[in-house]
Write a structure and sequence with these properties.
With 418 residues, the protein is an alpha/beta fold. The chain folds into 3 domains: 18-216 and 258-265, 3-Layer(aba) Sandwich (Aspartate Aminotransferase, domain 2); 219-254, no CATH class; 277-405, Aspartate Aminotransferase, domain 1, CATH 3.90.1150.10. Helices cover 36% and strands 15% of the residues. It has helices at residues 18-29, 38-51, 62-71, 89-92, 116-122, 142-152, 204-214, 243-246, 264-296, 325-337, 353-357, 366-374, 387-405; strands spanning 55-59, 80-83, 101-104, 127-133, 156-159, 167-168, 179-183, 197-201, 219-224, 248-255, 302-303, 310-311, 317-320, 376-379. The strands form 4 sheets. The protein has a 7-stranded mixed sheet with strand order 1-8-7-5-4-2-3, with helices on both faces. A 3-stranded antiparallel sheet has the order 11-13-14. Helix 9 packs across helix 13 (387-405).
């Protein structure tokens, strides 16, 4: 292809319309400050209520959310964190900044989420956290995972970048573990003008630390009665560096803060996008159901079948081909030639060069490796697709499966035309 696809993968995972434009117009014309204002407060309140967490604090990206969440673990050299290999690099990349051991946990072959049995086998006395993802919007098996972690006092960080719109037995990702991290990147289920993130927690001390870190304050502990209290200048009490600063004493510093403040414009759009989320999710599920119908006609093809009590957000549409890597290669090429963009997500993280440098290698997560290198497939599934594009995708997929991928191997019978 020349780069122009009839059915593109998500450039935008959401839909922006006149309601988003109106929200932006109101912010610009309000004359209010464009940072740390009422829009951010409203977005965080609505998000907190939607997820079901006590606190929701917005930041500038999902990656920043994960970086801050990992800082809350207070990792020390020699500590260990268990992480999923089946995710985008932003999930685990912040761990490279710490002198710790990362144990990659193999995945369940159906959901592609971390396998609780593998998780249990990786825990040691040095384990300080579990970092998981709800892959593609399919909720991880949180009851069993949290049971394992709770018995050992190990915090669980949920990467919920794919999971807005999902449910797990009536509850939403982001309130199932200890810390939830969300992304509002342009490709995600809702967006805050291309970038943005949110952290959800129930612990007040963590919420206070997150707020300090994102607000360019020191991540430290403070107490009253500092040595300069008797030298406080006579300034108005609401001014920065007023007498309160002189009356505090810093007892410890865990790290520096940063400016991770979501803009008012981004937060205003976030409010509108969150209201539209049910419609956007329904569109994703409708596209997925049509793809399911095609794959049902090809025995041997597996795809995400949502289990009772779970609701799939369908951020990604994933299925698995029989026949090995040659069959997968043929299908990807056939779809590309027909104008359907395929992006395979995601390469096993433990095999990236930076993690191989840390001693990780092939054979560490055999299920993740086998599926990725031989059968894993993703297809476009986002609300920006028109009905005509969805129809074209369905026809192209059926034709490619029937005439290109399987005649070479005889792995599948072509579906009947009657």
């Amino acid at each position: 292809m020349d780069g122009t696809y009839k059915v593109p993968f998500a450039r935008r995972g959401s839909v922006l319309d006149e309601h988003d434009i109106q929200a932006l117009t109101e912010v610009v014309r309000s004359g209010e400050a464009l940072s740390s204002g009422a829009c951010r407060d409203r977005f965080e309140e609505k998000f907190r209520d939607y997820v079901g967490a006590r606190y929701a604090l917005s930041v500038t990206s999902g990656t920043v959310a994960l970086e801050i969440a990992i800082r809350l673990l207070d990792l020390q050299p020699g500590d260990e964190v268990i992480a999923t290999p089946q995710t985008y690099q932003a999930t685990v990349q912040p761990l490279l900044a710490h002198q710790i051991k990362v144990r990659f946990c193999d995945i369940d072959p159906q959901s592609l989420n971390i396998d609780p049995t593998s998780l249990r086998s990786l825990i040691t006395p040095r384990t300080r956290g579990v970092l998981l993802v709800h892959y593609g919007g399919y909720p991880a098996e949180m009851a069993e995972i949290m049971g394992i972690a709770r018995r050992r006092g190990i915090p669980v960080i949920e990467d919920c970048a794919h999971a807005l719109g999902a449910r797990y037995h009536g509850r939403r990702p982001g309130a199932l573990g200890d810390i939830g991290c969300f992304s509002f990147h342009t490709s995600k289920n809702i967006t805050t003008l291309g970038e943005g993130g949110m952290i959800t927690v129930n612990r007040e001390t963590w919420a206070r630390r997150i707020d300090r870190i994102r607000s360019n304050e020191v991540d430290g502990t403070y107490a009253p009665a500092g040595p300069l209290a008797d030298r406080a200048p006579r300034v108005l009490p609401w001014m920065k560096y007023s007498e309160g600063v002189y009356q505090d004493s810093c007892r410890s510093v865990a790290g520096a803060g940063t400016n991770a403040t979501m803009s008012e414009a981004a937060a205003a759009v976030g409010v509108v996008q969150l209201d539209k989320l049910p419609v956007l999710t329904a569109r994703r599920r409708w596209i997925a159901s049509r793809l399911d119908e095609v794959l049902e006609d090809f025995p041997g093809v597996r795809f995400h079948r949502t289990q009772p009590g779970l609701e799939h957000a369908q951020h990604l549409y994933t299925f698995f081909l029989p026949g090995g890597p040659d069959v997968r290669y043929n299908l990807v090429r056939a779809l590309d030639e027909r104008g359907v963009e395929v992006q395979l997500r995601y390469f096993p993280q433990h095999l990236l060069p930076e993690w191989r440098l840390r001693g990780h290698s092939i054979g560490e997560c055999p299920v993740a490796e086998r599926l990725w290198f031989s059968s894993h497939m993703n297809l476009p599934c986002h609300p920006g697709l028109t009905d005509d594009q969805v129809d074209y995708l369905i026809d192209a997929l059926r034709e490619a499966l029937s005439t290109v991928a399987f005649p070479r191997t005889g792995a599948l019978a072509c579906p009947s035309s009657t």
